[in-house]
Specification:
Blueprint (H helix, E strand, L loop, with lengths): L2 H6 L5 E5 L4 H12 L3 E6 L4 H9 L3 E6 L5 H15 L4 E4 L14 H29 L4 E5 L14 H21 L5 E7 L12 H7 L15 H8 L10 E4 L7
Parallel strand pairs: 1-2, 1-4, 2-3, 4-5, 5-6, 6-7
Helix pairs in contact: 2-3, 4-5, 5-6
């Protein structure tokens, strides 16, 4: 085993990816599999394409239909993973939604929906994972999906519910990191900027044109550019890193 494989390799690890059927979750699931992890994808919408991509790379993965906003659904999925794989070492807590609305246009139900999926859903998954890790003596890594929107206010679109949920995730991450440090469980978050996923194809061009002058690198990030920081947080290389939020935003939040 090479020095880099020892630091960043995930052979023998079981990695859970929520929302791994598309977008960033799909890219990260494939990346974790390439690093040697057995990947378990949890989502409501299926993950056939992701599973095919991982199999093509010679990786190992399977899918469990799961609603991250339902505690019983998450608990059942995690129990199934323990039965089939025997461990949960890494969790990429990624499922999320965003609504571009002014505060006066948004309904309370819509605000609650965003908070329920982005914040409560991540809490449910993190708590379920932490419980299993503690009960089984697993010194695991939980990586919560935050966003640069948890630190800044995006313009020109308004998305108060999304920004609020991501700011809360960053602080929830710190809280869990401090609480579970005694068990050897590391909890960190990652805060991407604008990432060019297939879903961004539907973003109106006028929004993209407004964003570019605000990004010092003057481009959107590639989904693959998130793999290295996530791999660092997942691997033994980050053994003394917990409670951190890694920002990958082309220097947007520097301004």
């Amino acid at each position: 085993m090479s020095y880099l494989d020892k630091l960043f390799g995930l052979d023998g690890k079981v990695a859970v990816v929520t929302g791994g059927g598309r977008g960033i979750g799909q890219t990260v699931a494939v990346g974790l599999a390439k690093a040697g992890a057995q990947v378990v994808i949890l989502s409501r919408s299926g993950a056939d394409e992701t599973l095919q991509m991982i199999a093509k790379e010679g990786g190992r993965a399977y899918y469990i239909a799961t609603d991250v906003t339902k505690e019983e659904s998450v608990d059942a999925a995690f129990a199934d993973i323990m039965k089939r794989s025997g461990s949960i070492d890494i969790v990429f807590n990624n499922a999320g939604i965003c609504m571009h609305q002014t505060t006066l246009e948004a309904t309370i139900a819509e605000f609650r929906e965003v908070i329920d999926v982005n914040l409560t859903g991540e809490f449910i998954v993190a708590r379920a994972a932490g419980k299993i890790m503690i009960e089984n003596g697993i010194r695991g890594s939980i990586i919560n999906m935050a966003s640069m929107s948890g630190s800044i206010v995006n313009i020109p679109q308004w998305q108060c519910s999304y920004n609020s949920s991501k700011a809360a995730i960053i602080h929830m991450t710190r809280s869990l990191a401090a609480e579970w440090a005694q068990f050897g469980i590391r909890v960190n978050s990652i805060s991407p900027g604008y990432i060019a996923t297939p879903m961004s194809v539907d973003t109106p061009q006028e929004l993209k044109d407004a964003w570019m002058p605000l990004i010092p690198m003057h481009r959107m990030g590639d989904p693959e550019e998130l793999i290295p920081p996530i791999l660092y947080l997942a691997a033994d290389a980050s053994g003394y890193t917990s409670g951190s939020d890694i920002v990958v935003d082309g220097a947007y939040t520097c301004l």
